[in-house]
Write a structure and sequence with these properties.
This protein has 221 residues and is an alpha/beta fold. The protein has ten helices and nine strands. It has helices at 5-13, 24-36, 51-59, 74-82, 95-104, 115-123, 139-147, 166-172, 186-190, 194-213, and strands spanning 15-19, 41-45, 65-69, 87-89, 107-109, 111-112, 129-131, 155-157, 176-179. The strands form two sheets. A seven-stranded parallel beta sheet has the order 3-2-1-9-8-7-6, with helices on both faces.
């Protein structure tokens, strides 16, 4: 399977920030704040009002790779790619979304949880499988267990991931971690507290640098 640029960036940087917000302006501000904190992979979900407009604005930023989240059907997938999305993330596996991603050459990251679901998603064209909501159900120990029979399937931990568990998820074998409210908390965005979002992004980046420096987490890129 070929490796789209967004997938190669995920292997290098390990962190993907998920943006959910109650207004387009809050979502845009949160995305820019995350980028200011050093995280380049930014997912704008379709739960954001007027998400396609936000995606187009975010995609204009240099040094940033924008993707779409909560992509549930082919129409959303095509609209996101038209808006500049370089990767598609979903809570489920959809063959029609997989087909659009494959045709466009963008990274496809569907959600799954059980080994059966994970294997099926990979066979259906997933570049990386989002194991969700493993942050609140299973934790790093679950990843360690399922990595034994599935050592070659790239996995992204998501759903309940935070500053305390993201390094353990990487140590357990995930190639990356999707981070939602732990960085871009919708409440902070609604209040315009973008400096705090930037600070959180910087904290995650620094914690990851420290873990790589001491060999706590191995590089995969």
């Amino acid at each position: 399977m070929s490796q789209p640029p967004a997938f190669r960036l995920l292997l290098e940087q390990r962190l993907l920030s998920v943006i959910r917000a109650s207004t387009p302006d809050a979502a845009l501000g949160a995305a820019l704040a995350v980028h200011a904190g050093g995280i380049e992979l930014i997912e704008i979900t379709y739960t954001v009002p007027d998400a396609n407009r936000v995606m187009r604005e975010v995609a204009k930023q240099s040094g940033l790779t924008m993707g779409a989240g909560t992509v549930l059907d082919a129409a959303q997938a095509r609209a996101a790619i038209d808006a500049g999305a370089k990767f598609l993330v979903a809570p489920n596996f959809s063959p029609e979304v997989a087909a659009v991603a494959r045709e466009a050459g963008v990274m496809f990251c569907p959600g799954a949880y059980t080994p059966t679901e994970i294997v099926a998603a990979r066979a259906g064209g997933a570049h990386v499988v989002k194991v969700h909501p493993v942050g609140v159900a299973g934790g790093p120990a679950y990843i360690q267990v399922i990595r034994d029979p599935l050592p070659n399937i790239p996995m992204l931990a998501a759903g309940g991931t935070n500053l305390d568990n993201f390094i353990p998820f990487l140590k357990a074998g995930c190639v990356g971690v999707g981070l939602g409210p732990a960085i871009a908390d919708p409440a902070l965005a609604a209040e315009g507290r973008f400096a705090e979002i930037t600070r959180r992004a910087e904290t995650f980046r620094e914690r990851l640098r420290e873990a790589l420096a001491i060999g706590q987490v191995a590089a995969v890129a």
